Each structure stands twice: as structure tokens, then as C-alpha cells.
Amino acid sequence: MAGTHAPGFHPHLPGFKYTFLAKGLGATMWFFIFYRARQDGGKLLSPQAAATLSHVLLVADPQILDHRSYPERGPLLTYVSRLIVDLNLRKNWWAALRKRPDVVIFLGDMMDGGRIDMSDDE
Q1: Which of 6, 12, 71, 101 could share a disulfide with 57, CB 3.0–4.6 Å?
Q2: Contact, 109 vs 61, CB < 8 A?
Q3: Is the pTM above the cut of 0.85?
């Protein structure tokens, strides 16, 4: 057995930079949600709106690809994958909009490569 670690699960805590970034993004998200609720909440949550609300579009985990999504693939296969996914998303988006939803709600993470660190230039 290597080392003198006690048995069990010992996760590594994230550094200050990642903790600060995560809290900042979370605070920005909640600020935006509450701002939009303050602007449009009365329209969406009023009894009159609830009576007329008939179409809600839920977009769950769309996984939009970028150039970092699958680093093991070559540039050509990455381009073709992104093209196919983008065309499929576009086709489904226009098909969903033909139903004329009253509200659109996005669920889940948007970017497939969001788990990868970005350089300072990006």
C-alpha cells in the first residue's frame, strides 16, 4: 500500500480561483433569474396568465458541441460532429417554435465542453 492515508474517501477541495468563479457564476445566475422574475413574473404568474398558458417548451440538456467537446477526435470529425449536432438542434428548434410555446424553459447545462478549463485568452 502506497502512502500513509487513512482508508476512506478523501476528495481534493477546489482552489480559491475555482470557488470564487463558481460563486460568482451562481450569484450572476440568481441575479438574472430574480431580475427576470421582477420584470416578467407578474405576467407569467398571474391568475390570468395561468388560465391562458397552454404551451410550455422544456429544452432538456441540449449539449451544444464546441471545439473542446471531444479532444480525441481529429479536426475533420470534430467539424462534422458539430455540423450534424447544430443542424439537428436548428431543425428541432424550428419544429418546436411552430407549436408557438408561451414559455421556453432551458434545463441542464448548455455546453458539452463546459467541464474543460479554458485558457486566459479564451
Answers
A1: 101
A2: yes
A3: no
